[in-house]
Design a protein that fits this description.
Shape: globular
Distance between the termini: 42 Å
Structural class: alpha/beta
CATH architecture of the largest domain: 3-Layer(aba) Sandwich
Radius of gyration: 22 Å
Number of domains: 2
CATH superfamily of the largest domain: Vaccinia Virus protein VP39
Largest sheet: 7 strands, mixed
Order of helices and strands: HEHEEHEEHHEHEHHHHHEEHHHHEEEHEE
Strand order of the largest sheet: 8-7-6-9-10-14-13
Number of helices: 16
CATH class of the largest domain: Alpha Beta
Length: 427
């Protein structure tokens, strides 16, 4: 079979199914590009091909669907793919930036490199996918990407690595804290390291007995980004204690050291690869009323809350309480957790209509909004949020350019798959 035709067939299948594809692990000698070893799903192959097209490559798929041969070779194109691509290990035998970045991983998970791993959070984006989507929708250095549900900060970090300016909001103060620490600590790591031993010594007498003394110590730190770093280190230890029954003091010190090492890794690889980091602006905000001008952002990538399937307030209750928030009060502001039965679904849809309208309003004409969302099961019934999203986004003035299906791991009780919906604002 013609390799181009074979690649096209697999790409088309990605729109209907999301599973492993059968491939020959041997590599073609005439391949100019080689996929990363962890790329094994059809949807990933689809994103890899879309990414190549967006970067300006004309290519053929070679042996086993793991190699690609470029038809329009140039030094400029090679450099572009090396600097930006997410699914490729090498270009003409030169390692990509992304391959070098993911080597800076102090965890056992392939997608938790640099500061991505910090704090356990359900429903995290796969960072490799986000990097690809930033390329696919044509965002370049200096452009802006907006995320109305910034979550754990995955899009923020990947945008920063690519030199794209990130604007993000989230209703959860815990999410905002995560995103800020993951992206801003690189600029204050020297000050963080200087304070480490002092803070541990000051806190040691209070670790077991005086729970809130930690924040009294933090008040003496002038730099907000440094305070945020140590605050999240504490919350990470609280999470370990609550979820896993680990000793708080030991967990705090262990995670603090790992966090520092991860930020140092980030700083070192950024210097080695001469990365121009994007500007980051993350704050508490409401997706239903975004404080940004009309037609002001170059792209949107987000995943609306799966609150019908996941109770984010309950999941992070221990951390939110420690931060001083009343759970009942904060719950009233979260999308998808208000109401019961049909009322809950209707309230969710009403809130999402407002959020989607705001996305439409602030996005520049002819630019792209990516919505990653799946149908959930609530009270034994499927809630068709994918269909709802497509219909309402189209009604607003978006055109659905691509619908790619992928599997979800870890949420099998409520969701088995989700859709990557790529819209373009056309009117």
């Amino acid at each position: 079979m013609n390799p181009n035709l074979k690649g096209k067939i697999m790409l088309e299948k990605a729109e209907d199914i999301s599973q492993f594809w059968a491939y020959d692990i041997s590599y073609s000698k005439d391949a100019d590009l080689t996929l990363l070893d962890n790329v094994q799903f059809i949807y990933e192959l689809s994103l890899a091909e879309l990414e190549l097209r967006a970067l300006g490559a004309d290519y053929e798929v070679t042996n086993g669907l793991r190699g690609f041969r470029l038809n329009n070779k140039s030094d400029e194109l090679n450099k572009m793919i090396i600097k930006r691509s997410s699914y490729f290990k090498s270009v003409d035998k030169n390692f990509t930036d992304y391959f070098q970045i993911i080597q800076r991983n102090r965890t056992r998970s392939v997608n938790q490199y640099l500061t991505h791993w910090i704090y356990p959070y359900k429903g995290k984006f796969h960072p490799q996918m986000i990097r690809a989507l930033l390329n696919i929708i044509g965002l370049k250095e200096g452009d802006s990407v907006f995320e109305p549900f910034s979550g754990s900060g995955t899009t923020a970090l990947e945008a920063q690595l690519l030199g794209i300016n990130f604007i993000g909001i989230d209703i959860s103060p815990l999410c905002v804290l995560q995103g800020k620490v993951k992206t801003k600590s690189i600029f204050v790591i020297d000050e963080i390291m200087k304070l480490k031993n002092t803070i541990i010594l000051k806190l040691k007498p209070s670790l077991f007995n005086q729970e809130h003394d930690f924040y009294k110590v933090l008040e003496d730190i002038d730099n907000e980004d440094v305070r945020d770093f140590y605050s999240l280190a504490r919350l990470l230890a609280i999470s370990d204690e609550s979820r896993r029954g680990r000793n708080f003091e030991q967990s705090f010190i262990k995670n603090l050291n790992l966090m520092i090492d991860s930020v140092q890794d980030y700083k070192e690889i950024a210097q080695k690869l001469y990365l121009r980091l994007g500007d980051i602006d993350i704050k508490i905000g409401d997706s239903r009323k975004v404080e940004l001008p009309d037609n002001s952002v170059d792209g949107i990538i987000t995943s609306p809350p799966y609150s019908i399937a996941l109770d984010y307030v309950e999941n992070d209750a221990h951390s939110l309480k420690d931060m001083g928030y009343n759970l009942n009060e904060i719950r009233e502001n979260f999308i998808g957790v208000r109401g019961k039965g049909k009322d809950r679904v209707e309230l969710y849809n009403s809130d999402m209509r407002k959020s989607y309208y705001e996305m439409y309003r602030i996005l520049k004409n002819n630019r792209y909004a990516v919505i990653v969302i799946g149908n959930a099961t609530y009270q034994g019934q499927e809630v068709k949020t994918v269909e709802f999203t497509i219909d309402y986004m189209t009604e607003l003035g978006f055109k659905l350019e691509k619908n790619i299906m992928k599997l979800i791991f870890g949420l099998y009780n409520v969701m088995k798959k989700e859709n990557i919906l790529i819209f373009r604002k056309v009117k």
